[in-house]
Amino acid sequence: YLAYFEEKCPTSKRMTEDAAKVIPGGVQHNLAFNYPFPLAFTKASGAHLQDVDGNTYIDFLQAGGPTVLGSNPEPVRARVLDLLNTCGPCTGLFHEYEMKLARFICDRFSGVEMFRMLGSGTEACMAAVRVARVATKKKNIIKLGGAYHGWSDQLSYGNRIPGIRFLESHGIPMACFKYTQEVFPNDIEALEKQLKRNRLRGGTAAVFMEPMGPESGTRPLDFDYNGQVRDLCTAYGALLVFDEVVTAFRIGVDGAQGYFGITPDLTIFGKVVAGGYPSAGGIGGKADYMACLAGGLGGKKSKKAHVGGTMAANPLSAAAGYHTVKMIEETNACKTAGKAGDRLTQGLQKLIETYGLPFVAYNQGSICHLETVGTMLFDINLFRPWEIPSRIKEIHARKDVMTHMGAAYMAEGLVTLAGSRLYTSAADTDEIIDDALARFE
Ligand code: PMP
């Protein structure tokens, strides 16, 4: 691929080599570390991207998830530009769009009576830890093996690969994990055991989970699992935290909680909540729990938990978020994006069968996965944590396969998330999906 991309993308190569002198790795965003070198993009519109050398791509990265309507939809852009002309990007003071966005969310998410916007999904997860501890007066946080809830110290435990603590992140002292534990996804007995164990060590403040399964369903959950976790949280007085950073406004405008009919105590938002604009994060929950975020106002006797952010809920992000989620609802965009996901996944599955590839494609609406069988992360669901060290070679082999597949897709004009995840959007017409399938073939 090196020779191929050197010929096709010389400006990208030169720019990102120059950038590497002043930016670690040459790019600022984890999803942009493409193999064999990062590409520089200049245009994004709907379902397509264009790089600096003029090559065009079908965009299944969709910025990692925020752009359910496709990139840069004109109606949202027009509203944002109006606001920029009158108010500018930030004031640090209250703006009506904060209220409009909060009202929209509270009216639709069963687990959200109050909402506070923050700067990112990572920050929102950190806030949820704090709120859960104030609300329950308990200490421990349980998460599912391999789940990503941002890069804060206490939630980085076991990021991505269950049982392997430091695969993702050095620089976190073990003490940061004192009150964080991880249980194997789909093992409800293990969760109950951990909840019991925690009774003797400060109790469990919260169980964090993505309702579609860790890494947006890269490790899918049994259909009953969410409900079983809900029941255990209620029984043990722990808050159930749904991390809906990916799923909120993508699975539906009432989130995965609406899809499963399960009400969490706290909900984490990110990505679509600012419509692809900066400062995308938020926490929602029952009013009693959220009261501790009231700052100096209206917190009654509730204890205060401090969260902040200079840019949090700036008018631009709140307005972009509000107009985006409103347009998603009005145009039924989650359904359109989901249908595109179905068409793409079914087409990929057909190619896999036709060519007898050791791959599997599956999707949940517009969240699509294309995994290798045998070396897939998905298989980790079948491993116990103590088996993982002996299978580490397989896990790394999977990463290598996906890196090379990602480069192969890119060479055909297909941008994916690390060669194994694809987000569709409402901008993906049947023609675009069919064009993509021809390129995959
Ligand atoms: N939770 C989940 C499930 C995520 O997918 C992500 C981001 N990929 C985060 C939290 C962190 O969000 P952010 O990147 O906005 O900090």
TrEMBL record:
Annotated keywords: Pyridoxal phosphate, Transferase
Q: Which InterPro entries match?
A: Aminotrans_3, Aminotrans_3_PPA_site, PyrdxlP-dep_Trfase, PyrdxlP-dep_Trfase_major, PyrdxlP-dep_Trfase_small
Q: Name one GO molecular function term.
A: transaminase activity
Q: Which Pfam families match?
A: Aminotran_3
Q: Which Gene3D superfamilies match?
A: Aspartate Aminotransferase, domain 1 (3.90.1150.10), Type I PLP-dependent aspartate aminotransferase-like (Major domain) (3.40.640.10)
Q: Which domain of life is it from?
A: Bacteria
- SUPFAM superfamilies on file: PLP-dependent transferases (SSF53383)
Cofactor entry: pyridoxal 5'-phosphate
Belongs to which family? Belongs to the class-III pyridoxal-phosphate-dependent aminotransferase family.
* Protein name (database record): Pyridoxal phosphate-dependent transferase
State the organism of origin: Desulfoluna butyratoxydans
